[in-house]
Amino acid sequence: MNIGTFLNETAAIEKNIETIHANIARIQSLQSNILVATSTNEVDAISHERNRLMGDTRQLLIENKDRIKQIEYENAKLPKSDPNYGLRTQRHGFLREKLSNILNEYRGAEDGYIKHQTERTIRQYKIVNPNATQQEIDDYMSSPSGQPVFQQALLRTGEARDVLDQVKKRHNDIKRVEETVAELAELFKELYLQVEAQDQTIVNIEGNATETATKLEKANEDLGKARLSAAAARKKKWICLAIILIILIIIAAVVAYEIVKSRNQK
What is the extent of the structural domain holding 107? Predict the structure, then answer.
């Protein structure tokens, strides 16, 4: 990815994060309206819009988490000597932090909504069963429609049936939002766990590069020594050869002299 493509990609991700932030603000507003809605139809209409927006936001979060991860992988391939290395790592860190802040903000908002919905549901339960124990409340929150107190009330009044219907919807809503919170926590974990793993990869790459450079330097040093040794050996060989030739010449001269001297004496 060249620097122009890289900058376009980071700008697109940043724009998407702003869209996610706006979506979260809208989701919070819709959930506030759900909490104060006075009719089932109103709750259903608001919940429908909220659920659609939550689905869109979920897709954006996953998509942009993956795109930030891809940038990280691309950066890991670059040597630190690359002229754009600093810019690339700075932009990656900025986007990672911005997305993680959004995840935390969204998770906090959903935790608050779950708390308010749970409190309202418990209040409704206590209207039907004012003497409820904490164990009964806990059992009710885990499975509201299966509680005997509501089954008995259903036989008495139509109003109880309406309350039970609302309770079921709130219970399902709480479960849906709890799943969203769990997924947000997982996305946050993935974002940083993958970064840590990649950081370790970078460390390993740098360590291997340093080790390779050290070995290469040592090999060059040994090769230099070998070349010097070879040159010295060749020099010694030529010196020895020259000495041998000189000795042979001297011997030949002495032999020739003795032969000539012997002939003259005859």
Answer: 3-205
